[in-house]
Amino acid sequence: MKFIHLSDSHLGESMPLYRTPPSNWRGEGFIKNYYNALKPALRGDVDFVLHAGDLFDKHHINMDIIGRAMVPLRKIAIKKIPVFIVPGNHEREHIPGGLLLAGENIHIFSKPETIEFTVNNKKVVIAGFPYIRHESRKSFRKILKKTGWKHQRDAFNILLCHQVFEGARVGTRNFTFRNGENVIPLTEIPQGFNYIACGHIHKQQIIKTKVVNIYYAGSTERVSFQEMNEEKGFFVVRIKDGIPYHTFNRLPPTTMTIIELDTTGKEPGKLIDFFEKRISSAKPCSILRFHLKGEIELEKLKNIPLYLYKKRRDDIKVEFRKESLSILKDKRRRFYVEGTVKKKEKPYIPYRIPIDDSKERFLFTRKGIENVLTTPGIYILMNKDERVLYIGKAKSLKNRLLSHLWRKEKGNEGFYFWLKQAKICDVVTTGDELSALFLEMSLIRSNLPPYNKQIKEFQNYVYLTVRQDTYFPTIRVVDEVKNDGNPYFGPFRKEYKIRENIKLINELFGIRPCRRNLNDSLRLFSCPLEEMGKCDAPCTGGVNPSIYRERVNRMIDFLNGYDNGQIRELEKEKEKLIRIQEFEKASDLQKRIVSLTIIFNSLKKIRKTTEIHGTLSLDFGKGKRKTFPVVKGRVLWQQTKKKIEEKFGFPPKKWELDEMMLLSSIIGSNDKCITLNKKNSYQKEKRGLHQLKEEGTAVLGKS
Ligand code: SF4
């Protein structure tokens, strides 16, 4: 009887989730070694296969990788060679694509259990469980009990797991695990096992105990520089008379080289020669890490185009580390020449609406408001100095004012505490609530009454901008639009939400998430986001500037509400996941799709609204109507069209947004109070357009 024991294949390591990996990423190396390790099984030379955890590098994994992991396993299963897999810590105790991988002769231990089968009339019992994340020291016995394993004399007993046992060694300095809540003491291992197939420790080793030997096959490929001197491979175990005899089969690992370089007193020319030499003589498909030591002046360092060396060869990966390097910076202070710093531009002051002729004033007393009508309209409450305290709208003005007055008389100390100060009230009656809503909105934004808290929130709206003045543009959240040549998008109501969504946008378009200044030159060192596959490291020359620029242009098209092709791609990806019953991943992807679609749609709506040209007609009751021109989605309450038109650009000002969205929704809901110009392309997309007037306006009305 013969079997293979391998572990920690880490498929998907060095593989970005949604993009094709650059040629020097070593993700393919992991897949190649995994295939090589399974070769004896593919040839039919063994009776079963054990994989002791971390088949995949991540819980969220590319579908392509799952497919490639499945291919050899399926071939082995067809040959009636059983394969046993335990989920590891990288997979978060659950194998992604589990249903895809599982099938006849492929068994995944998604819970603690024991499996029995026979090989050449000899019984084999395998107890296995997924990775125990917390306090495995305490819970090991309990979980082993849950597997239902009992020692069988006539069988070969195997424990398959992904844990750290006491005495396991790691790293270049052979750190040995002794204590710790996740280190299982050897005394906890019960008698009766013939072989413990374990994963998690990447260094190949055998821990000898009194009862049984613990076999760590190690990872099939070097995962970090800590493993640069380790041999990689898998065990082929032959069982004779109930005793396992193992051989360790080596796999070709990636060559990792650390080159230490003291830069103190060295001229840039010498350093350049050194890098050139080492990079050109590096082994193909290797990783070269330069550990820079000593000290160097910043000006000298700038003369060494380290980012170019990263790109010098496509087949190797070059890294520069600076932990031990001290960079001597020029400490001269910078002064701004007077007059070069731009003064803050004055904010645009919105105009008041012309309501004075419709306005009536009353004392805020029971007697005073006796004469107020019960029609819809707005009311403005003021203190004795005529300072506006609160502006509201009501379906019945009189009833609303009476209810305020009742609260004032009652001395309500809650939300309406300010009513004590209210002495005067102005009212404007309207024919419908919609007109009242428009008036209320305009008055609040021009007067900013202290107690209209909710509607004043527009002051907290934010914008997105793409900084075009940097070599590798980034997307940022800003408070206000500046005239700096960068495109701005928005405004957005919820800052925290848009900050969350920026991460999704960056990931979707491959934009760097950091704020590093890359204008002078590229940097020597990237950051952990590169290692995590979340950034292509443009800071160190990981992306060609022209490719990066294309990505930025696509992102700008998305933010302008023109192109949502990327969302459609994600939709397709989601459908694929559903087809293979990866519902958890599909639901994660769906959440992302929803967030991105909300951004796209709201930006598209804002852009479309800025294309509205027409007339707004408000009803002030008693058959009195007033019309206001609408230009680029903004209502011109007072000023002439000519004067203001050039001021209305894209994106809208914060205080314009709510009014514009109201206009847009009126058109959408087929209301009568707005007419659109004939030329307006916006009208074609909206419901309710059924009548065209001769003078060139399209009238929206209920059909
Ligand atoms: S890898 Fe470079 S560009 Fe990317 S986030 Fe990190 S520092 Fe910024």
Q: SSE layout and pairings?
A:
Blueprint (H helix, E strand, L loop, with lengths): L1 E5 L20 H17 L4 E4 L11 H16 L4 E3 L12 H4 L4 E3 L4 E7 L2 E7 L7 H11 L8 E7 L2 E2 L3 E2 L4 E2 L6 E2 L10 E4 L6 E4 L4 E4 L15 E9 L2 E9 L4 E7 L5 H13 L6 E11 H5 L3 H7 L4 E12 L31 E4 L13 E6 L5 E7 L2 H14 L13 E6 L3 H15 L14 E5 L8 E4 L9 E5 L2 H15 L18 H4 L13 H15 L5 H15 L3 H27 L4 E6 L5 E7 L2 E2 L5 H5 L8 H15 L5 E4 L11 E4 L4 E4 L3
Parallel strand pairs: 1-2, 2-3, 3-4, 6-7, 7-12, 8-11, 12-14, 17-18, 18-19
Antiparallel strand pairs: 1-15, 5-6, 9-10, 13-14, 15-16, 20-23, 21-22, 21-23, 24-25, 24-26, 27-28, 27-30, 28-29, 30-32, 31-32
Helix pairs in contact: 1-2, 9-16, 10-14, 13-14
The structure holds iron/sulfur cluster (SF4).
Structure description:
The protein has 703 residues and is α/β, with parallel strands linked by helices. The chain has five domains: 2-251, Purple Acid Phosphatase, chain A, domain 2; 256-328, no CATH class; 356-458, 3-Layer(aba) Sandwich (GIY-YIG endonuclease); 463-515 and 542-608, no CATH class; 611-700, no CATH class. The strands form eight sheets. A six-stranded mixed sheet has the order 4-3-2-1-15-16. A six-stranded mixed sheet has the order 5-6-7-12-14-13, with no helix packed on it. The chain has a six-stranded antiparallel sheet with strand order 29-28-27-30-32-31, with helices on one face. Helix 10 (495-509) packs across helix 14. The radius of gyration is 35 Å and the shape is elongated. The chain starts with a strand and ends with a strand. Iron/sulfur cluster is lined by residues 512-514, 516, 526-527, 529-530, 535, 537-539.
